[in-house]
């Protein structure tokens, strides 16, 4: 066996740190970053091995607990991908069928609804007809993150669909729209069926009044607080509320492939589209020269796929002004770490925490954040 193989075998056979060691690392991370609240879950061999919450959930200093409702943010996109692949398994959806063929009428002809994007500006650009579910899930529609961020506030296509990666919430919203308007299925109900099956009793893509009793507010970069928003519409790009206990169950199912056929589970983390930019944002930054591109960084379906010292891995981040989330899985050993933070300052500690628990993984933090958190 080569030295490289021996090193990999040692990494994969190493034990997950003890709860006491995890707790110690998190307490230090929170002290170093000033983060007020953080929750973590560890999955080992496809099973939930540890969940815990630390700090406070609001300015009253009520404790953050494993059952506190927290923003899922863009982890919602991975939940959407999982549900879409189940539709593929059921023969209701095909990844490469154009959305134009799923909808009963042309996309720009639908009246604007605030649950979705405004599709009318696409009337002058027939390239929308080339967009498929696979293109939506690999963030290669050519849309900005959201149309309202365009200088004129109008959605447009910036490049040939499928040509390159450019993060787009509206691209995921388009897939939701196609499923709901074209297949007459409710994405909220589809995802809720999975939550129910997995015992995720405190997770939803729409606000529930029973969440109010144990709810996390958030803290921003400057220590400012923001109350938890009550999401009134199902938005596949980021409306999920969840708990660390629940998202741990989903992540364990995801890494095991529970609920998906082997073929669909393979599609989820297949290197679908090479990522060619220096960082994830801004969406339309120039592509790097080939010699400077990371060779092992790809879009999967609703996740980012990478190769590192422990082999193939995948991850998804979630972020807003007062939220920092990450989900990291290593295929070998079916090991994962999930972190939900109701304080965006905690993101700076994510690389160190993931390394403490999983070892050296190769997660592309520099691409994710535009810098390596915690490194000056």
Secondary structure class reads alpha+beta
Relative helix content: 25-40%
What is the CATH topology descriptor of the domain at 3-67 and 242-369?
Beta-lactamase
Largest sheet: 8 strands, antiparallel
Give the name of the CATH superfamily of the domain at 3-67 and 242-369: DD-peptidase/beta-lactamase superfamily
Topology of helices and strands:
Blueprint: H1 3-13, H2 19-33, E1 37-44, E2 47-55, E3 70-71, H3 75-89, H4 99-102, H5 133-137, H6 169-182, H7 187-197, E4 218-219, E5 225-226, E6 241-242, H8 244-256, H9 262-268, E7 273-274, E8 297-299, E9 304-308, E10 311-320, E11 323-330, E12 335-341, H10 350-358, H11 365-369
Antiparallel strand pairs: 1-2, 1-12, 3-6, 4-5, 7-8, 8-9, 9-10, 10-11, 11-12
Structure characterization notes:
- This protein is an alpha+beta fold and 376 residues long.
- It has a domain at 3-67 and 242-369: DD-peptidase/beta-lactamase superfamily (Beta-lactamase).
- It contains 11 helices and 12 strands.
- The strands form 3 sheets. Strands 2-1-12-11-10-9-8-7 form an 8-stranded antiparallel beta sheet, sandwiched between helices. The chain has a two-stranded antiparallel sheet with strand order 3-6.
- A hairpin with a 5-residue loop joins strand 4 (218-219) and strand 5 (225-226).
- Helix 2 (19-33) packs antiparallel against helix 10.
- It is globular, with a radius of gyration of 20 Å.
